[in-house]
Design goal:
Structural class: mainly beta
InterPro entries: LOR, LOR_sf, Tubby-like_C
Radius of gyration: 14 Å
Strand content: over 45%
Family: Belongs to the LOR family.
Protein name: YxjI
Distance between the termini: 33 Å
Number of helices: 1
Shape: globular
Number of strands: 12
Helix content: 10-25%
Length: 155
């Protein structure tokens, strides 16, 4: 299955619409405008909050907590590195490999690739594609991709 994450270009905060491969709206993401650090809320198509990504404050490098349906599922923290971003990910037992700066990376469960995330070029606003092997990983894969995007955008 495939999800498309499209950033709304003319918005006061980080706002994304997420569509399935048939262009049906599946989720949307909205940031708190005046929050300390990134606070992103993920809603399903029926306007129910299904996830939250919260920047942890008082850390040297950006770190985020990922919640799904009100339960903490893990964290992502940027690691000190030169030239290319690297992350320490403690989320769902997954590991992530690839080019984070170029938005071309894979998510693995044990030794098997389960999700591939890329950035599409030549679009008005950022557009990311998430290819998911197992539909049960849809929401968790989306939450991880959004958390990585938040970490990439945080100075």
């Amino acid at each position: 299955m495939r999800l498309l994450i499209k950033q709304r270009v003319f918005s006061w905060s980080d706002t994304y619409d997420i569509y399935d491969e048939n262009e049906n709206i599946r989720y949307f993401v909205k940031a708190e405008v005046f929050a300390l650090g990134h606070q992103l809320h993920v809603y399903d198509a029926w306007n129910n909050e299904v996830g939250r990504i919260s920047q942890e404050l008082l850390t040297f490098l950006p770190a985020f907590e990922i919640e799904v349906n009100g339960v903490k599922q893990g964290t992502i923290q940027k690691k000190f590195s030169f030239l290319t971003p690297k992350y320490e990910i403690d989320f769902n037992g997954w590991r992530v490999e690839g080019d984070f700066l170029g938005w071309d990376y894979d998510v693995y469960s044990q030794c098997c690739p389960i999700i591939h995330i890329t950035k599409e070029v030549l679009h008005w606003g950022d557009t990311y594609v998430i290819d998911i092997a197992n539909p049960e990983d849809e929401l968790m894969g989306l939450m991880l991709a959004i958390a990585i995007d938040a970490a990439n955008c945080t100075n």
